[in-house]
Amino acid sequence: MSNSLTINVPNPVKQNTPLRNVPSGSTAEPDYSVKYVPQTLTEQQKAQARANIGAAAAGEGGGATINEFVYTRTGEPGEYTGVISCEGYEPKEGDLMTISFAGPFYTEYNPVTLNNGTTNPTVTLLNAEVNATDYDEINPEVNTKWTVRLTKVNDAWVAVNISTQVQADWNTSDATMPSYIKNKPEISNEPVDDRMLPFYVENTSSSDVTCIITGTYGPIQGSIDNKTWTDLMDSTQTDVEFVVPANGRYYLKAKISHGTPGGGGIELGYQITNLPDTIGGNLLSLTYTNFSEIDNVEVEGAKFQSCFAGNTNLKSASKLKFPRGVIETPEFAMQMFNGCTSLTEAPELPAYSVGQQCYQEMFQNCTSLFKAPELPATTLTSYCYFKMFNGCTSLITAPALPATTLAFGCYQYMFNGCTSLTQAPSLPATVLADYCYHTMFGTCSSLTIAPALPATRLANYCYSAMFYNCTSLVVGPAIAQGQTISYGNSFEQFFDGCRSLRSVSDLKITNLTGTEMYYFFHYCSSLHEIYCYATNIDNPNFGMCFNDISPVGTFYCASGMKSTWESLNVIPSGWTIVEM
Q1: Fewest CB within 10 angstroms: 481, 544, 571, 575, which?
Q2: How far apart are CA 519 and CA 523, in angstroms?
Q3: Domain ranges, residue 74
Q4: When comparing pLDDT for 550 and 518, which is higher?
Q5: Nearest CA to 118 among 137, 98, 141, 144?
């Protein structure tokens, strides 16, 4: 086995070798002076001179760096070869290198210092940081020193005969003891990518936390080190406890796959409660044993409805990994974090195609969440984002929504009640669906500017109540010119309750035939200017449309349409109708 480490060394290397040897028996002091005339020095002497005055060689940046330490087991346990590559110091044949380590890093062994001679120069590397994860390799313990003899093999400097011993106060066999090596917080055996890890619960407090799994869809296994696994629950149990150690993790994974990602599997039906502050790892490990190989979850695959709902101590799910491809399973993450009032960090949601009700109410009432995850999906299905952030009163930033073709109710109530949201995402969709934007920004009381709406063919209730009770909205959306209304309810309650809205100039709708404008401007008490481009007005419904707006204002209509608007008798009497 081999392990690559990078050790950054900010302090200059200091050679203990004098610049000039003194003949044996001489009482003369060695000449350590730096000459002000041309002077010929060896590479070692140059390095020492630079160290003496705190200088660095050209391009070194003031320090030495061991670029690589590669440990390879060469024989019996304890016999290793380390290959060393350096910058800022040129090793010499037979040199001894003493290395001081000051964490953080992770190790199971405490190396023994060897060859601690005094006849050869040594190099001490201070404040080095090592991150190593392989328990089978030899890695330095905090603040220990080890010395290796350097020799050159195939133009590479090699450190040979490195022995090790297990630190006496570390227990390597009894996993139930606090001293067990893999229970210690400085131990890590994790790959960098959490996607390769099974789902885990992380406890950063100084006390153990007892969690409960409720459900009947086992069998589930648990582990405190991701190595030794025990059966936690089977398909007959409904409530099982597990303990997350202080400053530690507890891993969970399916003992057998619940069917295949392609369908026919048993959906996940349990909930985990009393979680501490953090969860992470691959979500699919709770249902599939080959979770690291799965990017797509098809119809009848796993679902995680309400899996973590109501965990008021949960703060971070940013390390939780979701499928990166297609999610066809209905209700895949529906209400997953509903009511997690302390959650501030959401997981990434990288899927590019999402199924019916996939993320419905996923973060509903997560009142501490201030930033939404990115939502790159361009293939949507009905209700996929329905009420996704409903009631997220701290949400400031909304994600981009790149889809250009929408689905039934896909964004309905998506940001309803996000009272801190100040900026809406752009909405590039040109193909709409029934109820697609219904009450999307309802009661977003901090929203000031509405996004443009480029679609030219509408759908039933597509924009209904879209900005309902957005009390700070001052700029309405630009609506594409030449709208063709396919259903009459598209704009019902569109601006209802927008009390700060003063002027609407971009409603470039030319066809209002049969349109339900019911409550369109209702209670827009500051509204005093409207530009209307409609040239086809046949049997519209303006019931309560202009109720409770400013008593005085100007209504600008298309050329030749003044008499038509006057005959409708819907514009407030204090307003002036003017042709554009």
Answers
A1: 481
A2: 8
A3: 2-20+37-165
A4: 550
A5: 98
